[in-house]
Amino acid sequence: MSPVVVTAVFTPAEGHDHELRSALAGALPAVHAEEGCLLYAIHDADDGSITMIEKWTSREALDAHAAGPAVVALNEAISGHVAHPPVVTTMTAIPVGGSAGTL
């Protein structure tokens, strides 16, 4: 079973950069403790957005995460701090290139 990689791009509401970063950072410990979480990390992007890069052992682990309490808490924490809902992209590796296309 191939790992699943996810990007979630968050655009801060005007003047809410710090609050959004804090809300996202606050979610990290609970998500890292979830079964199947290999990576859950936030990054500042050059365009002002904040990108969450995730890696899960399987689609099932990702689905459990998406339906779990950590995501509910995260959605509550970011409410009012984002310009619009995050843009989420789910990917599976194409096994070519270095390290067989894995992140």
UniProtKB/TrEMBL annotation:
Q: Which residues form the ABM domain?
A: 4-91
UniProt GO molecular function: monooxygenase activity
Query: Keywords in UniProt for this one?
Result: Monooxygenase, Oxidoreductase
Q: Name one Pfam family in it.
A: ABM
Q: Which residues cross the membrane?
A: none
The protein's matches in PANTHER family, at most eight in alphabetical order, are given as: ABM DOMAIN-CONTAINING PROTEIN (PTHR33336:SF15), QUINOL MONOOXYGENASE YGIN-RELATED (PTHR33336)
The molecule here is called Antibiotic biosynthesis monooxygenase
- Lineage, please? Bacteria, Bacillati, Actinomycetota, Actinomycetes, Micrococcales
